[in-house]
Amino acid sequence: MIKALVVRKEGEAKPVAAVEEISLDQLPEAEVTVAVDYSTVNYKDGLCIGPGGGLVRNYPHIPGIDFAGTVESSADPRYKPGDKVVLTGWRVGEAHWGGYAQKARVRADWLVPLPEGLSTRQAMAVGTAGLTAMLAVMALEDHGLAPGHGPVLVTGAAGGVGSVATAILARLGHEVAAVTGRPDTAEYLTSLGATRIVAREELTEVTKRPLESETWAGCVDAVAGPMLGRVLKQMKYGTSVAAVGLAGGAAIDGALITPFILRGVNLLGIDSVLQPYANRLRAWERIAKDLPMDKLEAMVQPATLSDLPGLGRDILKGQVRGRVVVDVN
Ligand code: NDP
């Protein structure tokens, strides 16, 4: 028997999540069985633990979109018992049972070998949020961003994606301006390497102005909504915004075409879920190299399976700071 966070839903009632014991043969069929060490809590996990958000199709369900652990058995030649692996995305924890259990059974294609120098705990301190932050930074670099070009804006900075993006960009030598709606996180963000704190309210008013002063050399945006509409108008000529999330709304409120056609600004979409394997490997290797592990540790809030229902509610309200690491054992 193994421990797992199981979400059950009866008829029209709201889903209920609780720690239960399940037998191994209840796990889905797939090539690789992993003994999970750690999982984490992303925004999507909040949805899958709680309301479902259209992501979970079948109940009972085991959420957990990320996990890291050790291969226990594998019917695929790419993996053997004892290998350390990490999994993010591929709709694991949404359409497939995920990492909130002591064991997970998944397809070999979905796994990535843990990069040299990264522990399973550190991999989950990174998780989907951190991987996405790295993919965003890589996309900005691929479109010309380099240190010395000017301040790089990170929105939703005290959240998971934002915290990791702030630490990586600062480590790479960028000047980082962190947008937060929580003034009490200023010290935390400065400790991650932000040199400027921007109050959320400064960027949430929808304006009709076609352009504003050229301010930012790049942006990692986890928020969208009115903030992304404003930020686009403040980008320097020829720079890019990596659009990662929608914590502030699913539209780009007040956006005009002017930044694109008068300043050659790029809006780069970032998806971590179906990201091809080669780029995942590249991102995990860059994380092991370019994310300072002491800064990562400063983001970590430890948790256990029984903390997850509460943490799921908190992350949906934007109240989780940094990254949660869940010890599932
Ligand atoms: P978190 O909840 O940890 O962080 C989101 C942050 O956004 C909050 O901490 C808060 O930061 C800010 N925020 C919340 N609500 C608002 C609001 N109404 N207006 C402005 N800012 C707000 O989530 P994650 O960092 O894990 O994820 C961020 C977003 O990225 C989510 O939308 C998520 O779905 C998406 N995502 C997308 C991925 C992809 O593959 N594209 C992968 C991972 C996440 P502060 O308190 O500092 O203001």
From TrEMBL:
> Which parts form a coiled-coil structure per UniProt?
none
**Known NCBIfam families for this protein?**
oxido_YhdH (TIGR02823)
Question: What name appears for this protein in its UniProt entry?
Answer: Acryloyl-CoA reductase
Q: Which domain of life is it from?
A: Bacteria
Alphabetical list of InterPro entries matching this protein: Acrylyl-CoA_reductase_AcuI, ADH-like_C, ADH-like_N, ER, GroES-like_sf, NAD(P)-bd_dom_sf, Zn-ADH-like_protein
- Give all residue intervals belonging to the Enoyl reductase (ER) domain: 11-326
Pfam families of this UniProt entry? ADH_N, ADH_zinc_N
Organism, by scientific name, is: Albidovulum sediminicola
